[in-house]
From TrEMBL:
One of its GO terms (cellular component) is nucleus. It comes from Poecilia reticulata (Guppy). Signal peptide: none annotated. This is tRNA (cytosine(38)-C(5))-methyltransferase. The keyword DNA repair does not apply. One of its GO terms (biological process) is methylation. The keyword Transport does not apply. Transmembrane segments: none annotated. One of its GO terms (molecular function) is methyltransferase activity. It comes from the Eukaryota. It holds the Pfam family DNA_methylase. Belongs to the class I-like SAM-binding methyltransferase superfamily. C5-methyltransferase family. It is an enzyme of class 2 (transferase). Keywords: Methyltransferase, S-adenosyl-L-methionine, Transferase.
Length: 384
């Protein structure tokens, strides 16, 4: 059967491309488009044979798109205009310009209305990697859509297939993935003077939530995603004394046997608050014994206690592992650690997207070769 021809927009470091490979779908990425020079360098390093267009999407003539004769579009538009930590400019944010241009290639309207008006059947869902067994919370909005055979879209081809409503049975192992509630399961409790803080600004509710997460045997342990310690230059990743003193009480600390970690953002390694978990490497001391009454000690005494935990950042390779990137993925040698964290924080979870691609294409293989036009959209909806 003929391979699908795939156009990858906002290609970044290739998360969607890896997801396509992971899905097992017979497909070829005929072009990738992005304007981030660092991300493009990493993409080209890993996919040297894929045509990579370093252009703004709105600057590409429609004829150039049509000449690709693509069957599928994959994209993850910029999330910053819509995030809680961003400026919340919505469609007025200049970073939305390229996405709005894509929608204008269809009838002049917004996403859902555009899809409906063009004859697409779509499915929206909120999914976190924990839903597919990965110990990392990265709750994101995804939309998958397939066009019916009697309609056409951006390209001149009129091929397509029907897309019935997704049922739980089509996601057999973790069917709740399509019913996932939009909530930040790692959000600390709101400041409340009547709530008793145990230690490290954690309440009993916070502690119980983390305990419950660590008891979920359907999720793997953090240690399954770690590099061998002998391969890590610890001096590069250990938290510095000034960081421990200033941010020690708000660190999200996980251990090798934990089954949870919080979302890694593009600020990981540069900023501390809300950018990702840190790893406790020395297990001889309990976190509670180190942080209880810590605020009553001198700075030197505080450091002596916190040093006992041997806290470090996850390496970029470990973050990539948690985001589902295969071992074959690598960075060019001249990409700094901070740049690696930044592009990973702007990427998506490969395994989640692969599962969605499998789900979306499941009916395709039962249809004729001519019926194969569909698209997938994954938006980093809550990243910062």
């Amino acid at each position: 059967m003929e391979s699908l021809r795939v156009l990858e927009l906002y290609s970044g470091i290739g998360g969607m491309h890896y997801a396509l490979k992971e899905s097992g779908i017979s497909a070829q990425v005929v072009a990738a488009v992005d304007i981030n020079t660092t991300a493009n360098k990493i993409y080209r390093h890993n996919f040297p044979d894929t045509p990579l267009w370093n252009k703004t999407i709105e600057g590409i003539p429609l004829d150039d798109f049509n000449q690709l004769s693509f069957d599928m579009i994959m994209m993850s538009p910029p999330c910053q205009p819509f995030t809680r930590l961003g400026l919340q400019g919505d469609v007025a944010d200049p970073r939305c310009k390229s996405f709005l241009f894509i929608l204008e290639l269809l009838p002049r309207d917004y996403l859902i209305k555009v899809l409906s008006g063009c004859g697409y059947t779509y499915q929206e869902c909120m999914i976190s990697p924990t839903n597919v067994g990965v110990p990392n919370s990265r709750l994101r909005y995804f939309l998958i859509a397939k066009m019916s055979a009697e309609n056409s879209s951006i390209q001149t081809s009129d091929k397509g297939c029907s897309f019935s409503h997704v049922t739980d049975s089509e996601f057999p192992e973790r069917s709740s993935v399509l019913r996932y509630k939009c909530q930040n399961i790692d959000q600390p409790s709101e400041d409340n003077p009547n709530v008793h803080v145990l230690y490290k600004r954690e309440t009993q509710m916070d502690s119980q939530r983390k305990t419950n997460q660590n008891k979920d045997l359907s999720v793997q342990q953090i240690q399954d995603y770690l590099e061998p310690q002998m391969n890590i230059n610890m001096e590069l990743y250990l938290l510095k004394p000034k960081t421990l003193l200033r941010y020690g009480s708000i660190l999200d600390i996980v251990q090798p046997h934990s089954r949870r970690s919080v979302c890694f953002t593009k600020g990981y390694g540069r900023y501390v608050e809300g950018t990702g978990s840190v790893l406790q490497c020395c297990m001889e001391n309990e976190i509670s014994s180190v942080f209880t009454n810590l605020d009553q000690l001198t700075e030197e005494e505080k450091l002596q206690k916190m040093f006992k935990l041997n806290l470090r950042y996850f390496t970029p390779r470990e973050v990539a592992n948690l985001m589902g990137f295969p071992q074959s993925f690598s960075f060019p040698e001249d990409i700094s650690i901070i740049q690696q964290y930044r592009v990973l924080g702007n990427s998506l979870n490969v395994l989640v997207v692969a599962r969605l691609l499998q789900l979306m294409s499941s009916e395709h293989f039962g249809h004729s070769e001519g019926e194969k036009q569909f698209s997938v959209l994954g938006n980093e909806y809550q990243c910062s």
